[in-house]
């Protein structure tokens, strides 16, 4: 089972310090070595919104007023169960502290 683990922007989140970076580095190395982590990265908070209505597609450059809801980072993991994905999410939140993440199962090949 694949899960997309997304992290939302947080007003209370501080810039990462050396300790956080070291802990996150160990976590990423562990998941990579275990073959669980398929991809990870940060996302540009500005983004581009595309909205379609009939034959028309409207393109709007960000950032958007709902920036606090924006996804700023992601990890794609392959695990045996939903519970395993949740446990990885708990470990991640334990490292980075207060904030919000969303897990969604990825369907398809």
UniProtKB/TrEMBL annotation:
Pfam families: YCII
Domain of life of the organism encoding this protein: Bacteria
Domain YCII-related: 1-91
InterPro entries listed in its UniProt record: Dimeric_a/b-barrel, YCII
Family designation: Belongs to the YciI family.
Name used for this protein in its record: YciI family protein
Source taxonomy: Bacteria, Bacillati, Actinomycetota, Actinomycetes, Kitasatosporales
């Amino acid at each position: 089972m694949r899960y997309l683990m997304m992290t939302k922007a947080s007003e209370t989140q501080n810039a990462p310090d050396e300790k956080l970076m070291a802990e996150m580095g160990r976590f990423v190395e562990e998941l990579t070595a275990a073959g669980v982590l398929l991809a990870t990265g940060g996302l540009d908070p500005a983004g581009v919104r595309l909205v379609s209505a009939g034959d028309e597609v409207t393109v709007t450059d960000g950032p958007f007023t709902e920036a606090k809801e924006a996804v700023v980072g992601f990890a794609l993991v392959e695990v045996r169960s939903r519970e395993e994905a949740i446990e990885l999410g708990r470990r991640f939140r334990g490292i980075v502290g207060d904030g919000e993440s969303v897990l969604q199962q990825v369907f398809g090949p």
